[in-house]
């Protein structure tokens, strides 16, 4: 049992962070980090790999501050940056500290952001960069994320996973034709790795949004913003808007796809079962499991 219990009515701090840094002892770090999180009553997921650390966590103000100090006490993470938002309800149910081959999976062992990455662009300078007609702006996130919000004029690689991004680049982009490329993603981690990959492919000018969409939405006023829609996040908030305010989307229990109010008016939407994105692929077996889960939840209310 956690030694610190977060009160149900307490506003929670949601912190996201990552850093590409060589951690050859990442396996040994796992248990002490897990134990520290448990002692502080922190929930969420932290990934550890030889290439670095990546996490999204939630807890009380004191707990988050304590964990960040704990992480930064390691000299390799002394300059670890993080982003914050708040949540009224716990966005995670438990704490997980997982060991991975990569903290963001591209599937190419020879791509190392610790060696080289593109040019960081601050949120305040991002509008100028992506408004340059010579710059190709690419959303490195997946198709379902792009569908609920993106930057004006951005290209959609239409990927189902980040592993497909190298193939998209190979099939659609040419270093000799696309001289300037600007990349972005939710928190900065995918576009940082993507920039390292594109430099290795011979692209000369590769820019990426420092801190990702979340930092942009936090720091750039809505009236100056070139962001359109909402930003998908990987927790129970589903999406956020400018100022990192909670968005309007919910998540389909059946497939995990973000669903809008319009989706809910579809005949293919059944609360707690399916949505227009998964209705046609829903098997009888899965429907039965979801219906039973829905019945169990209704009994608890």
From TrEMBL:
The organism's superkingdom is given as Bacteria
Q: What class of enzyme is it?
A: oxidoreductase
> Its catalytic activity?
uridine(34) in tRNA + AH2 + O2 = 5-hydroxyuridine(34) in tRNA + A + H2O
InterPro entries (UniProt xref):
Rhodanese-like_dom, Rhodanese-like_dom_sf, TrhO, TRHO_N
Name the EC number(s). Answer: 1.14.-.-
| Pfam families the UniProt entry points to | Rhodanese, UPF0176_N
In Gene Ontology terms, what is a biological process of this protein?
Answer: tRNA modification
Key words of the record: Oxidoreductase, tRNA processing
Q: Does the keyword Oxidoreductase apply?
A: yes
Cite the SMART domains for this sequence.
RHOD
Report the residue ranges that make up the Rhodanese domain in this protein: 131-225
Gene Ontology molecular function terms on file: oxidoreductase activity, acting on paired donors, with incorporation or reduction of molecular oxygen
Residues of the signal peptide: none
Coiled coil location: none
Give the similarity note.
Belongs to the TrhO family.
Q: What is this protein's function?
A: Catalyzes oxygen-dependent 5-hydroxyuridine (ho5U) modification at position 34 in tRNAs.
Q: What is this protein called?
A: tRNA uridine(34) hydroxylase
Organism, by scientific name, is: Fischerella thermalis JSC-11
